[in-house]
Amino acid sequence: MPELEYPSHLRYSADHEWVVAGSEESVYRVGVTAYAQDSLGEVVFVDVPAEGDALTAGEACGEIESTKSVSDLVAPLSGTVVAVNPALEDTPEVVNSSPYEDGWLYEVRASAPDELDQLMDADAYRESLS
């Protein structure tokens, strides 16, 4: 089995989601990790929060469904959703083929950017999986 990648410029949650700074201050893009998509199997549906939804870090904010199971999406940061990935509606499998690029889920304007400090770097995330 090939080793899964965990880019070093991302931050990771214990719930197998990644976060990266977006194009605007306090806006962060969120997706699921290679580990999550590999564990889920073929993704067939993604229910992400809608633009304008308020999120609370650590609380469920959507679901990701695969041929194997349905898993909660857990918000890694508190804030307001400012964008969702339009590709997910017609091609949810992009989460499998490109989890760190085209398969991103949503963007959130963080209301407590210091929550980012609670997330793991790539080495700590990799270690948490072993």
Automatic annotation (TrEMBL):
Signal peptide: none annotated. The modification N6-lipoyllysine is found at residue 68. One of its GO terms (biological process) is protein lipoylation. The keyword Repressor does not apply. The keyword Oxidoreductase does not apply. Belongs to the GcvH family. The glycine cleavage system catalyzes the degradation of glycine. The H protein shuttles the methylamine group of glycine from the P protein to the T protein. This is Glycine cleavage system H protein.
